[in-house]
Amino acid sequence: MKISKGDFREYGPRVYKNDAVVFTVAIKPGTEKAWILLFDKKTKKSISEIELTEDFAIGNVYSVELSDINVDDICYLIKEDDSAYIDPYATAIVGRDKWADIHGRESKKFHVYSGISHIEKDWKDTTVSIEPCDMILYKLHMRGFTAGMGLSTGKVGNYEGLLSKLSYIKALGVTSVEMMPLYDFEELNLEKRMSISPKGKVSESTEYTGKTNYWGFGLADYFAPKAAYFGGADDASDGMRKMIATLHKNGIEVIMEMAFSADTTDEIILDCLKYYVKYFHIDGFHIVGCGAPIERIAKEPYLSSTKIFYEYIPEEILCDEKGKKHLFIYNDSFMNVTRQLENHMNGSMVQFANHMRRQNAAYGFVNYMANVNGFSLWDSYSYGEKHNFDNGEDNRDGTNNNFSFNYGIEGKTTNRTINANRFREMRNAFTALMLSQSVPLFVAADEAAATHLGNNNPYCQDNKMGYTVFSKTKGKEALTTFVKQLVKFRKDHKCFRIETPFLMNDYRHLGLPDMSFHSTEPWMMSIGEEQKALGVLYNGAYVKENEEVFVCYNFHYDSVDMALPLLSPGKRWRLCFNTAEYDGEDFSPKPIHDQQSIKVPGNSISVLVGIKPEKRKK
């Protein structure tokens, strides 16, 4: 093995020759001595300790090239003085090939090592470009999705299982998949324990607490694809690329959820995002759980075509946006406002109307009715309070602001009326979501009424409580069909997804405003706070479509007669569906006799289109 000065090109290990690897690492200020510790990957026996001397340094950054060595046979650690640790830029993690392998890892004292992937290799991929207005975002957890699908053991918790259900995802109309952490994290909750022998000798050991980090949030090895998901440390990078290439080939973009820990430096965050764009062609990132350097991320040229989703983006950053729309505000405001109305918790129709049409030409928004850090959509209408005791935190974890309602019984019931009400509210939620102007997102299996049994924070539940279980019943299958039809309806009507805000007037003189509000009387000038019913008229002419669309939201308990706006000569209103009366039929326009008003049942949404009826052939 030959040792020489490296090229300082990128942090982490890089394989530029068949028998050579360059390690570039930053050493903490004040460190007296530092080494790269090499180990045999199979036996974990020490091979060599390479001291990082001034000959390999620029400042506190050291770069070492090792040649005449089989790169695939080694793993390594960084050591500073008396502390050895995993390289934060490691491209693979050795020792966590199997998910939650408690016994196997316990025998090796839970040790893991930095690994080396051949990320510089070329690979075939297809470019996918989904405009924000065309996005249908679907959020899933690799393990939870595949386990919830009831796949064979060999396909649970890995990318092959995910790809085996690709036809299902495509059938939903999904364009973009947000995946919970795909990088390598420690799924076993481990603790350091100190012990004293009878002779007074103090020793330290690592023990498994019995709890699982199922979601993968917190401290992690962000540059290494998760070995357990992608075929082991030797194949993880190739496995992740294969998954991405397959999704891209099928026209689906990949959004990675990045849950950086609070102490992750700005530099590592930026380097990590650029790394996944460069080497894995990731289409976007949902950044959660930290004070991310969002201004630097927004202005980073390398990420200018990469979609960035973040809970809060300061107005001054948004106002400075130019070029391709790639910044998106991603939070629960739409969910909270809509749930308050649905569940009769003093919701505001003014806020709801504003959220239904929030949009900006320079940046976007993400709307959802449920997310992983809260009740599942079904549980939002099945539980009045959270039930998180199984998390081991005395029910203190998880949000208390759920705006949920159980509709008569807490949790599971066989009461047909209660279940019918819950399914109606599910249809209401999906309808409001899919007809909102922002990017719609829903969590995997919400379209199948999945439950987490009232747990609104199942971060540690590596079981059916935490999985997104796709159980088959008549009601759940009907809901899935309804969601598919809704997605298609959204795609068929561009008026719901234009990229600029509605101006609420007829600025192009097309006969009707681009969008307008109505109630029991047509043409409302304003919305009262006491109001719980609203008609929204979309003029299809503004998006070069021949249909007007009229959506009637009724969040009152009782039915309401909503005024139907006057159409141009020759056009008639047709009813596509009502969420309370839906029984599995398609959304094809159905004739209605009264063209002046329509009775909308309580707690329901009616959707109509204004069309010119085809003349009957003689």
Secondary-structure topology with pairs:
Blueprint: E1 2-5, E2 12-17, E3 20-26, E4 34-40, E5 46-51, E6 57-58, E7 61-67, E8 74-80, E9 83-85, E10 92-94, H1 102-106, E11 113-115, E12 137-140, H2 142-148, H3 159-164, H4 166-171, E13 176-179, E14 183-185, E15 188-196, E16 202-212, E17 220-225, H5 236-249, E18 253-258, H6 266-280, E19 284-287, H7 294-299, E20 307-310, H8 315-319, E21 327-330, H9 333-342, H10 349-356, E22 364-368, H11 416-434, E23 439-443, H12 474-492, E24 515-518, E25 533-538, E26 548-554, E27 560-563, E28 572-578, E29 590-591, E30 597-600, E31 604-611
Parallel strand pairs: 12-13, 12-23, 13-18, 18-19, 19-20, 20-21, 21-22, 22-23
Antiparallel strand pairs: 1-7, 2-3, 3-7, 4-5, 4-8, 6-7, 8-9, 10-11, 14-17, 15-16, 24-25, 25-26, 26-31, 27-30, 28-29, 28-31
Nutshell version of this structure?
The chain has 618 residues and is α/β, with parallel strands linked by helices. The chain is 19% helix and 26% strand.
Description:
- The chain is an alpha/beta fold.
- The protein is 19% helix and 26% strand.
- It has twelve helices and 31 strands.
- The strands form eight sheets. The protein has an eight-stranded parallel barrel.
- α9 (333-342) packs across α10 (349-356) and α11 (416-434) packs parallel to α12 (474-492).
- The model has no long low-confidence stretch (mean pLDDT 96).
How would a crystallographer describe the biggest sheet?
A: 8 strands, parallel, barrel
Structural class, judged by helices and strands?
alpha/beta
| CA-atom Rg in angstroms | 28 Å
Shape: elongated
Task: Give the proportion of residues in helices.
Answer: 10-25%
Averaged pLDDT:
96
Low-pLDDT segments: none
